């Protein structure tokens, strides 16, 4: 079922186009090696990933600051693993991680193919809650920056998804309307609920394949977008 009268497509970046899990693991491997951190990376990630997810949820809700997120997710993970690290070491690891993260640039399967498919018929845009200083680097270093007419970050907009105002900010920036736009993202609350509240049709990318019986279009692979666009 093709969607009609769509001119603008807004994508989330992390876990939607950019393979955050793989690139993040590679960045931590590099940090641990350079800092001689004696933790097995897979054991660390098993603990860190759910903690990081919770911190991002709190960050979206303005319950923690950017600095609290960067420090707290590492401190809590090290505590669970009983690895002793002082404030200075954790701060340095956090800085290194953000520095190294955009150096690894795996895209999710089908990402480049779908962008090539869409670019001739639609204006493409990014709306992301990711940090301003790394999101643009991710786009440039992974070779997909040129596909997007606008990139809107939560720090630029002053609010985070799912806040309606970030979508309104992105629409104004791109000269789009809710009626001629769709939003594609992996976080149901931030991307889909947020978009719907602004009048934008959402497509949910079920990246972790754990949602059932939802009332919006949902895909499990990026290539499935071709059926709708």
TrEMBL record:
Domain of life of the source: Bacteria
Entry-linked InterPro entries: HAD-like_sf (IPR036412), HAD-SF_hydro_IA (IPR006439), HAD-SF_hydro_IA_YjjG/PynA (IPR011951), HAD_sf (IPR023214), PGP-like_dom2 (IPR023198), Pyrimidine_5'-ntase_YjjG (IPR052550)
Pfam families: Hydrolase
SUPFAM superfamilies: HAD-like
Keyword flag Hydrolase: yes
Keyword Oxidoreductase among record annotations: no
GO molecular function, one term: 5'-nucleotidase activity
Keywords: Hydrolase
Name used for this protein in its record: Putative hydrolase of the HAD superfamily
Organism: Salegentibacter holothuriorum
